[in-house]
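Why does this matter for the project? Reviewers at the last site visit asked to see concrete outputs rather than summary tables. In response, this paragraph embeds two records directly. Each consists of the residue sequence and, immediately after it, the corresponding structure tokens. Nothing has been edited or filtered.
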Amino acid sequence: MLVSCARSPISRLCLSCVLASVSLVPDAALATAPEASSVKKSEKTSDPKPVSTRPLTAAPEQINVTASRRNLLGRAETASEGSITAREIQLRPAYRVGQILEAVPGLVVTSHSGEGKANQFLLRGFNLDHGTDLATFVDDMPINGVSNAHGQGYTDLNFLIPELLSGVDYTKGPFHADVGDFGVAGSDHMKLADNVPRQLALSAGTLGDYRAYLGGTTHLANGDRWINAFSLSHTDGPWKYPDNARSIKAATHYTHGDTLNGFDVTGMFYRGQWRATNDQPLAAYSEGLISRYGSLDPTDGGFSERYSLSGHYRLADDTWKWVTSAFVSHDRLTLWNNFTHYLDDPVNGDQQQQDETRTTVGGSSVYSRQDRIGRVRTDTQIGVQGRYDFLYVDRRHTRQRVTLSSCPSSLEATAPYLCNADDINLGSAGLFIQNTTHWLPWFRMVVGLREDYQGGTDSNLVDGSLTRKRQWLFQPKGSLIFGPWKKTEFYLSGGRGFHSNDFRSVSGSYASDEFTKGSVKVPLMTSAVSGEVGVRTTPLRHLNVQAAAFIIDFDSELSYDGDAGVTSPGPASRRQGVEFSAQYNPFTWLEFNTDLSIAKARYQAKNLANYGIDGPYVTNAPSFVWSFGIIADRGPWYGGLQVRWLGGYPLVEDNSLRSKGYQEVNLNIGYRLTKTLKLEASIFNAFNTHAYAAQYAYDYRLKTTSAMQSGATGHPLEPISARFSVQYGF
């Protein structure tokens, strides 16, 4: 791997970083220090047996195991799923909290609009915008926002406190019966720990970022655990008009019993506000209107608030398990964005305010059991999931965050001060069953069936109309797994999935001219069919490899509408691609990992003109993602290095305008002064790459007197920066 790594400039860069990082690890003792890690050896085993509920008579030995992903050979349902350990989350460098998910192979998490806003996600040739087609859960609570003010499936992870995470389980493709809406490209399930060390942490960075964290676990006499955590943060960034992003987060998590029998209750609170430097027209840079980190409208920004209450109740016996969860969350969101500047309103500009107030209730109940019919073992899951969203959402025309009485001509409205305003009630329910039958020692079969229902009402507060819609969608899925033979398994997977559409596009509350004319009908749920063939193998000791080839056919592609600032349904599309991942642990304290994803995304429909599209290329769909990483933990030293390369992608459908993507190197190094005191230093964009973290193409007008232009926009990647932290355990 390292020999071939040196053949290209970026790879030589990777190799030099690897050698530099390894040189920081002292060559003292080969013996592992017991205090170097809190990860138990039993957490890394590939033994599929259930965890015993009997109390331990002695504390398990603590050893230093550095591993990014658990070995799922013999247990996985597909070639592309995986489980990320808490150790990788702790050791990987991450500039922003959402980049925790870049541990998922092939997933890129970036930003195009300030630190308080939801991140932009890219996976399997999808520009997932702020989360569409990537189903995200925190302790089984769905995070994607349906019919969101800014984009369908909007996924804001800024409320997370990273110290509370115990790992991430992820899937790719619509092959798992327990994953419904937004799960076509993939899903991630972030898990909260039921025990975290008591710790005070303070950090400061060179881009005006500061953070304070206080948290820990109280162990009660009956064995229950009570976690409390609190965090304050501030970030300016390199921008001419500082983000001044401020946030306050708090969480409490109470656990009784264990992972098989017991219950837990979790409360979370988050509040943040910020100024945003959105992606700016490249012409504004070249014409000298703004500097590299400047903005044509420094009043863009946002406010977000979220609080939730959730919990689980678990029952289990030797052959069965029943897990029931429930949650309620309340969110408020306001965004000020000026995408097109003076295009629609040459006098006041095109800034718009998007508001949302949402209350969501929901939950799930899943019954699992193991049975034997003769020599054949079967594992069965039966579950039901549901949520109901009560939300108010609107859009207003503003100037420097002050609401104007009318909308531009392209956003006509009959009500003063409102471009759009809707009261939406939307319910969804999914019933699924999945069975895994182990027919032979070398062959098992997974069959899943899922039925989803969505229905709701949209009360249009601008024209007074009321729309009712409902839809059912049946989704078969499954896998055939052959092996293991010599620690190798082969997978063949297929299935149907879906993403829901913004209810306002279904009802016509907002629409482009084409939708208004009725040439395109928008369903509540848009289905996709996907297939995957892959392999999971351990060809050498301590080397784990996964590879998969996939195809995804979507009935309708969701794309970002820069004029309206929302996602809109588009024509049918197809993606074909291959993925490769490998992790090598030459020692218990050291891991090398690499991920490669190549995808081709094209529109398939013949009537592209109905959607205002003049070419087959899916815009903003990356064709290439590569990463290389190291995580190390030996003696008092620990840390991680991550090299990521996001390849180029088309900005317009005829591929005449493209983004080059970007390459970035991040590094994290820590040293334990004592058992309770640690120092860390992180370097982001270590080689000061001048690139754009995200790019789009819009029509825009730069000044009130300018002519209309069409061209690329960009949000610059943050320059080289450093962050220093001190952590004290007590």
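We now turn to the second protein, recorded in exactly the same manner.
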Amino acid sequence: MMDASLRELAEAAGIATTWRNVHGEEKEVAPDTLRAVLAALGLPGDVREARAVLAQLRNRLPPLMTLTCGPDGAAVPGAAPGHRFRLDFEQGTHIEGRLERGWAGEARLPAITTPGYHRLTLDAGHTTVAAAPPRCFSLEDAGAAEHEGSAPWAVAAQIYSLRRPGDLDIGDFGGVAELARGAARHGAAGLAISPAHAMFAADPGKYGPYAPSSRLFLNVLYADPQVVFGPLPPESAEEGTLIDWPEATRRKLSRLRGLFDIAADHPGFVEFRNEAGPALEDHARFEALHAHMLAQDPALWHWRDWPGDLQSPQSPGVQHFARDHAREVAFHAFCQWLADASLGAAQKVALDAGMPIGLIADLAVGTDEGGSHAWSRQQEILPDLSVGAPPDAFSPLGQDWGLTAFSPLEMQADGFSAFRELLRAAFRNAGGVRVDHAMGLQRLWVVPRGAGPAEGAYLRYPLDDLLRLLALESLRHRAIVIGEDLGTLPEGFHDRMDAAGILGMRVLWFEQEPDGRFRPPRNWSPMAAAMTTTHDLPTVVGWWRGRDIEWRERLSLFPEAGTAMKERKRRQADRNALWTAFLESGAATGDQPGPEQTGPVVDAALVHVASAACRLAILPIEDALALPEQPNLPGTTDGHPNWRHRLPGNAATLLEDAEVARRLEAFALARPRVGG
């Protein structure tokens, strides 16, 4: 394939053939990378054939088309002006008529004002019309915009870090419920939680919540069996500050197996399993198969290394395995039932306690390519590509996260069924969803297997369609949407998020002008959630002390000698600038504290962030408790205790400590008043 033809085809398929690095320099994507991404998209190697496939995809009536409710109507691909149509609304009414002619000669539906999934019938066939509201469900819609007279705020916590009696050394949804009840007493409108996606029951060493096995199901270690079975016999608990994931997993699964042995026929489980259908069965079969294969040979961790007749959920080999191991498959489905019931109960507790939002779930950007979702949805994912990020100031070599993602072409060809299924799983039992790496709705950096992270390319996604489906599902589930929009963004992406009613994220450490001054909180974007930090960034105490710099130096994460010293010098300048910003915002008074005098800094940081013009403020519990360690230090897996820290106190009473309660009160009082 000639280079010019290859690049033309790549652009037509949605692959950007150039990209700009952190210095603004334009870089060309290598031909081998373009060929690899085209192959992953399932396009023929011949240019002419590939173009024909793309043309057929874009010029036919799709299985699902999206539009925004309003006066403009929408173009109908594969149809001609004047053709008769019938549109059956899901509410039971219908309209009939002829397709209109648009200004470019295209066939168009008339204006639609009723959101929902409607049935469009034409002479040439039929399709589903996803008619979306102009914006996602909002804080105003949720009754949260004037919570207790001020702009709303929420607490954020890592699920695994919570403590409660009987949790068997891993935080669970019972702890989430108790923390939500406590946060509501202090006036919080919501509780943002870390991803609760399904992990790998047979491999407790894979516990990073942003690299799940499946985003359709839940981490069964977070199940609180007491929701279904009532109080259970107590078991001894470790009082350590770090989770021993293998040991805690063994104990939790042993408890769940004991319950399954006495309640495998529970009517609630039978009903749940029947309603969940094939998707649950595929996941449960994967869990059983994964354990079975690892018991034979640890080298068989990835499903692509299994025997051929086990590599597809529809294969006869998998059907035989499921019959021969029916009880083991049922056990994994049983665990999902308990986890789902536990999460639903936690959301009910949050709402009953007075939170207008309740739980804000976290949707990871992708799944582990060796996991359940990739195995059961092979047609929908990108084979031999992983998601990551190009080189930037923080990662000069780029990043390869080892995650797989949906194919944008397959999304459209299949009527976005996989994406809609994912959204419904995310919104289930939640009053809000945070979309991790939200720019993935428009483009993802994909890296071919065997290539370095810098040898990737940006792959474009159908942003208009995805935003409309997100808005529609947000409305149907009455849940707000937050988009993680940190880092390098496509041009105009913030504007698109604002228009779609998606709240961005404004983090204290990044609200800095080019000259080093920190931006006044009154000037922070209103269409965002303000916060001191995130799970990947230092806490206020850690930042002020330079704890993150110490960790990176200790683990040799700086690119060259002398960088740590430069970072310490810059941090001192940033401390000076931040304290000045605190003084100017009224969050602090007096002289600047030293690096170890963190108490006044935490107090000032919380008031400063809470006073932001953002429509929502989120307080990470690590900063409410003035803890020094961040949950995750990017760039390392073993050197820093990522995703292992437990909080110093029970979830039910954690916020009642006098100092913590004082910080929460100050945070709440600093939120801008609503209505004067």
